[in-house]
Every structure is written in structure tokens, then in C-alpha cells.
Specification:
This protein has 18 helices and 28 strands. The strands form 7 sheets. A 9-stranded mixed beta sheet has the order 3-2-12-11-13-14-15-16-18. The mean pLDDT is 94. The structure holds adenosine monophosphate.
């Protein structure tokens, strides 16, 4: 599918993009968010307590939750009170400002309550995706020096607490009577804790979130976000997601990733909007049912999920009445197949948005008040300057592919890389540009077009996988003497993780061995990081410094070496 889809009427908040670009400043958004307060207040307060104390929404449902047998809803007043309780629990155990607290749980109300409690306490939440296995959990907890973690009995098994000297407290949600010695029962503590808590004041640069994101080389990086980011999340939730108080919003991303945090709950709650959280695994029919049952009006998801819905059940959408008025996408290229489907079956286009863990907020987006260009991630958010630069940092003219860069200074910009200043400054090596690691070009109308990663980071089903992490794990397998990992284009998942390995001479290549190696990576890292394809080769290509030559690996994955 190609071309331009002309402006679809019906957007409620941002009426004139060009006018906003001319006149808007983030100071204005800050004034709107903070009201007559002097400056950044705690983002957890802005998300929940404020809806109770200032907006008259105490009895409004903040969270509709459903997973398996659980079906619950929580008002803003309950979220405020329960998160106060958890802040008190942390206080009782000596966890305070700037301490890091891991969250390793499947999506459930306790996760969101814990997150808010941590942030109210002035501590840093360290979300860990529930699919992470022991090595991935260990690396992140060790690097962050987390003092406490909240988990479930099932996931507790993947936390090697004895190897983590900084980890003093393990809070376990559920599983009464089966706790390991020294672990703390989350619900018991909550039952005893007071509902009153004076939320810790936050300065603009005070961090509240430490989120690990994979890079091309080395271990995942701890990306730090500060309370000032609230302004960026708030105004994009309003202008990009077009949220109004009577919307029902469903962002399908897991809170182990930035999308599931900024737009999963913080952004919509700052607007007093009810959110739906669906636990469990993906199921096409179940997703249609969820959209219908909760009368979701604004939906934020990802191309792989849309494609799975398309393939999971032709005609399914017709069985469930939908109430959608705005649909958005993130994380991977929005393909023509998906856009065609949404126009044909859902009667409206899907609006693509571009951003990353480091940016903390949507930065290049499509808006209701602008025509859509098929294949474009859209235009910079008003007040944000984006460019395409060459490897020396010079700006390139339209229609030339280069490095996608954003001028430093947007409100949700990350404030650091944990334990690694050098890595942080590397992002700003062409100051004032922040170099994203993505390739892109823009056309003469100012629309940007994403052209893949520059650095070999793999994006599989919208999840970021560092090839280095997978290679290191592969090398721990006795049959593997060398390994090179690359993203291979895939029609469902965008890319799959493809591994080339050099086999130890004492092993024969069999399907069983391939399965064993794949499981070995899965057991150590996470299912999404395990290579879907493994191919033995006589050698792994290297560059002059002896590192894996990713360009050649990519040629292999594309089959170009056979031509
Ligand atoms: P993460 O930090 O995990 O959110 O991953 C960010 C990366 O996802 C970006 O650097 C891009 O490579 C990719 N990405 C995000 N949004 C889009 C989009 N709309 N289209 C294509 N790729 C995207």
C-alpha cells in the first residue's frame, strides 16, 4: 500500500499542527500540568493522587484488570491509598530516596501499586520483563544494585538472591505459606500499613525510573528517567493519543518496557482516563473480546500484534462490536498490510508513533490533524527538532538516508545511563544532537521515514534484543565455539533473531542440538531473545578489530552471499 491518506476528521485535542509548531513551548505544557505549583512534583502524585484531591475523580475507575480468573477494578482513590500503603511498607524496611527497587511480575494490579509506591517514596523503580530468565534478571539486578524486589512465587525462582549482596528484601505477592526464608509477604505487609503517606517531593532531575534497554554491544544499559519527564508524557498523551477524560484506553505493552509505563498507565492517568490491563498471553479472539467488553476507545499496540490479529481470525472483528475512535502503533515499522486491514476492517487508519526507551516520550508521530503518508513515522512533535545527520554530525537535506537525531532538551529526555557516563555522552557525541541509533530520511514535506537500526540491535516483534547478549550466552554452550547474531527480516515479527555458530568439532549438527542450543539461550535470557533460526558455519566474519562483522552477517541473513 502506498500514497497519502488524507486527514481523517475527529481528532479532539490537537487541531492545527503547523500552528502548534509555531507557537507551542513545553513551558506551556508544564504550566498546564503543574497548575499553580512551582514545578515538578512527584510523577506518581500527578498520575493518581491528584485525580482524587484536585480533579474530583476519586470514585472513577483508574484500572480495569483481567487475567485468567481475576477480574477486578480499582478507582483512583484506591490506587492512591494502596500505593501510599506500599510507600509505607518500603519506609518500614528502610528503603528510601534513590534506592533501586526491582519489579519482576506478570501484569497484575500489585505491579502498578508497587510501582507507584516506589516512586512516591522517592526510590527508583527497576522494571524487569516477566519473560526474563535468571541471567537476564541477575545482570540487571547486579548492575542496578537493587536493594529490594517485588515478585511472585513463580518468578522468585529466577532471582539468584544469594549472588546479589545488595539485595536485602524480597517481597512476594501471593503464595502464602510457601515463602523462602527471609522473604516478605507483600499482602501481609500491605494489610498492616497505613493509607496515609506524604509523597516525597521531587526535583526536576530526580530520577524515578531505571529501565534496562539493549544496545548493540555489551550488556543492557540502565536508562534513567526523571520526574520532569511527566510534562512530555502528559502532552503527548493529549496531542498524539488524543486522550480525553471519557476515553477508555488500552495500551497492550508490558510495563517491563517503556511504552507499558509511560503510556500503559502514567500518561492516561495524568488525564484521568481509565485504562485496561489484560494479563496472560496473546490470543487474537481474546483481544477482540477485550476491546469490545471494555468499550475501548483508544488503543495503542504494535504491528506484530496487529498482524497476529489479522492471521488469528479473519472476520473475528465482525463478531465483537468495537468502539474504537483512535488507534496507534509503535515499536516497529507499520506495514501496508496492517494499514490496509485497519482501513478495511476497522474503518480507520492506524497512526504510527516513533520513540525509544531513551526518549521517554513519543517524539515523531502521526496526528489526527495531518494527512498520513503510508510508511512514514510522521513529523516531530511540536517543540521537538528532529534531523538526519551524517557520521560527522552534519545535517543532511531531504531524501538522504542518515542517522536519525533529535535536538537535546525535550522534557522526557533520559538523564543518564546508570554507572556509565561515557555511554551517556556517546549518545550526544554530535551535540546538540542526540543520536538515536536508527537510520531515517525525511521528505520535502517534513515526513520522516524509518530505515532500520544503524547498529545491529535487533527488533523482534517490537522488542529490542542486543546481539551481543545473545552471542555471549551462545558461547556458554559447550557445542558453540563462536557465534554471530543478526536480525533477519520476517513477515510476521518484523525481524527474527538469527544465530550463526561455529560448532565444536566433537559435535554433530542435528535438530536436537539446535533445539538444545535455542533452549539454552531461552533459559538464560528470555524466550524473545532465543534465536528462531540457528545455522552452523565454518567461520564467523570479523572486522579488523576482531569483532563480529555485522554487515557480513546481515548479508548472510539476507541470502546475499549465495547470489
Ligand atoms: P525501545 O527502546 O525498546 O522502545 O526500542 C526503540 C526502538 O524501536 C527504536 O530505536 C526503533 O528502532 C524502534 N521503533 C520504535 N518505534 C518505531 C516505529 N514507529 N517504527 C519503526 N521502528 C520503531
Amino acid at each position: 500500500m502506498e500514497g497519502v491518506i488524507s486527514r481523517i476528521p475527529g481528532g479532539k485535542n490537537l487541531r492545527d499542527y503547523e500552528e502548534a509548531c509555531r507557537t507551542f513551548s513545553f513551558r506551556e505544557a508544564a504550566a498546564e500540568l503543574y497548575g499553580n505549583r512551582p514545578g515538578p512534583v512527584n510523577i506518581a502524585y500527578l498520575a493518581v493522587d491528584r485525580q482524587v484531591t484536585e480533579k474530583g475523580l476519586r470514585d472513577k475507575t483508574a484500572l480495569f484488570f483481567e487475567s485468567g480468573d481475576r477480574e477486578e477494578k480499582y478507582t483512583f482513590a484506591q490506587m492512591a491509598a494502596y500505593s501510599n500503603k506500599f510507600a509505607n511498607v518500603l519506609k518500614k524496611h528502610g528503603i528510601g530516596k534513590t534506592d533501586r527497587v526491582g519489579i519482576f511480575m506478570p501484569r497484575c494490579p500489585e505491579l502498578y501499586i508497587s510501582f507507584l509506591g516506589i516512586v512516591k517514596r522517592g526510590a527508583l523503580a527497576v522494571p524487569l520483563f516477566e519473560a526474563f530468565m535468571e541471567d537476564a534478571v541477575f545482570d540487571r539486578l547486579r548492575d542496578s544494585g537493587a536493594k529490594a524486589i517485588i515478585t511472585t512465587p513463580e518468578l522468585r525462582k529466577r532471582i539468584p538472591a544469594n549472588k546479589l549482596p545488595d539485595l536485602k528484601h524480597v517481597f512476594v505477592v501471593g503464595g502464602c505459606g510457601t515463602l523462602k526464608k527471609g522473604d516478605i509477604q507483600w499482602h501481609n505487609e500491605m494489610a498492616e500499613a497505613s493509607r496515609e503517606y506524604e509523597v516525597t517531593r521531587a526535583g526536576p532531575e530526580d530520577p524515578y525510573l531505571l529501565l534496562y534497554a539493549s544496545g548493540a554491544e555489551g550488556s543492557p544499559k540502565g536508562i534513567l528517567h526523571a520526574h520532569r519527564g511527566a510534562v512530555g508524557i502528559y502532552i503527548t498523551a493529549k496531542w498524539v493519543h488524543d486522550l480525553c477524560q471519557d476515553d477508555i484506553y488500552w495500551c497492550t505493552a508490558d510495563p517491563g518496557w517503556i511504552t507499558g509505563i509511560a503510556y500503559g498507565f502514567l500518561g492516561p492517568w495524568m488525564h484521568g482516563v481509565s485504562v485496561v490491563i489484560r494479563g496472560g498471553r496473546f490470543d487474537a479472539e481474546d483481544w477482540f473480546k477485550t476491546l469490545s467488553k471494555y468499550k475501548v476507545t483508544v488503543w495503542y499496540s504494535a504491528p506484530t500484534a496487529f498482524r497476529m490479529m489479522i492471521r488469528g481470525g479473519p472476520g473475528l472483528h465482525a463478531r465483537y462490536p468495537l468502539y474504537l475512535r483512535h488507534i496507534l502503533s509503535v515499536g516497529e515499522p507499520l506495514t501496508g498490510e496492517v494499514l490496509e486491514w485497519s482501513l478495511r476492517e476497522l474503518g480507520q487508519p492506524i497512526y504510527d508513533t516513533w520513540w525509544m526507551s531513551e526518549t521517554g516520550m513519543n517524539l515523531i508521530c502521526n496526528y489526527r490533524c495531518l494527512p498520513l503518508k503510508v510508511g512514514s513515522i510522521g513529523k516531530p512533535f511540536p517543540g521537538v527538532r528532529a534531523a538526519v545527520i551524517d557520521d560527522e554530525g552534519n545535517e543532511l537535506p531531504p531524501n538522504q538516508i542518515g542517522n536519525l537525531a533529535i535536538e537535546a532538551g525535550w522534557p522526557a529526555m533520559f538523564t543518564g545511563v546508570w554507572n556509565n557516563h561515557e555511554e551517556y555522552y556517546n549518545y550526544f557525541r554530535h551535540y546538540p544532537w542526540f543520536t538515536t541509533g536508527d537510520a531515517a530520511y525525511y521528505d520535502r514535506d517534513g515526513y520522516f521515514f524509518f530505515q532500520g537500526r544503524v547498529d545491529g540491535v535487533i527488533n523482534t516483534a517490537g522488542e529490542r534484543v542486543g546481539p551481543n547478549e545473545v552471542e555471549n550466552r551462545l558461547l556458554q554452550h559447550p557445542a558453540v565455539t563462536d557465534a554471530g547474531v543478526v536480525g533477519k527480516p520476517d513477515s510476521l515479527r518484523g525481524e527474527i533473531v538469527k544465530a550463526y555458530i561455529r560448532l565444536d568439532e566433537s559435535y554433530n549438527w542435528t535438530k536436537e542440538l539446535a533445539d538444545d542450543i535455542r533452549n539454552f539461550v531461552k533459559q538464560g535470557l528470555a524466550a524473545h531473545a532465543a534465536p528462531r533460526e540457528i545455522e552452523p558455519r565454518g567461520f564467523i566474519p570479523k572486522d579488523r578489530e576482531g569483532r563480529n562483522n555485522r554487515r557480513v552477517l546481515r548479508e548472510w541473513a539476507l541470502g546475499l552471499d549465495h547470489k
